[in-house]
Amino acid sequence: MNLYPLLRPLLFALDAETAHHLTLELLKLAHQTGVSALTVPDISDQPVTVMGLNFKNRLGLAAGLDKNGDYIDALAALGFGFIEIGTVTPRPQPGNPKPRLFRLPEHQAIINRMGFNNQGVEHLLAQVESSAYQGILGINIGKNADTAIENAREDYLIGLRKSYAAASYITINISSPNTKNLRQLQQGDEIKLLLEALKAEQLRLQAEHGKYTPIAVKIAPDLDDEEIRHIAALLLAFEMDAVIATNTTISREAVQGHRYAAEAGGLSGAPVREASTRVVAGLAAELQGKLPIIAAGGIFSAEDARQKLAAGASLLQIYSGLIYRGPQLIADVVNGI
At what angle do helices 121-130 and 152-163 cross, to 10 degrees? Predict the structure, then answer.
């Protein structure tokens, strides 16, 4: 039974951030009491191997919904093929001032400027340790807001070291528009130095732990063709394991005239669908199958998912679609691709 259409008007009547936390708490309660097992639709297993990891299906939860790993088991019970938690930073931080999360229902979109609000990597790792989930778990890492951009590498290395043993894979978030100057890490020598340092540390940690944890790099949808080519070449040169395309957009072209269009932050949901698919296709043309692409951005149906796969993606992630469509979207996508 799909209860979400009944709940959504009530949740959407609340402030977006309040509704976010309430939904997660209700989901956790439903999981603990066994209610979610009665309401989750049947999802067929469709195993696929990507990054050397065995996924039960191609659809995952994008980072940002569960920043601290507080709801891993409840979210996994919805039928995802993998879960990505974070973005987490080395030290706890409050994020940006509220309000910082806005719904644009007319556009099936969300604007957020959360600013990596999280309780720090130690809290997240404790939550991972206490969860029962045995599936593929990605940990998305970023830098603290008060770490100077020239020292960003050290924050990413701390995140990599601490998360390495617990994660199935680690995502490097260098594309959020909500931490000052973060996106410049995608450009010029900045990305070369970062990827070089991360690769060297990954190989050192592999020897230390006797385990290879893949690294994915998450990029923005606002890159032009030349920037896509540049990043693709560097991902191959430094032997990264995957790329996630894409994060939120800073463009407001698709939502002009909306009362929230002038709000700072990243726009996600349906308006980013085409830009995200364009980046996926551009990466696929450059990477030629040498590196898997995880597509995120504007997936609201099985058809949207099929378009991402046709553009060259191996795996998919949703977030905003889940807010607007509810858990039924998971079954629709997995059973429809």
Answer: 20
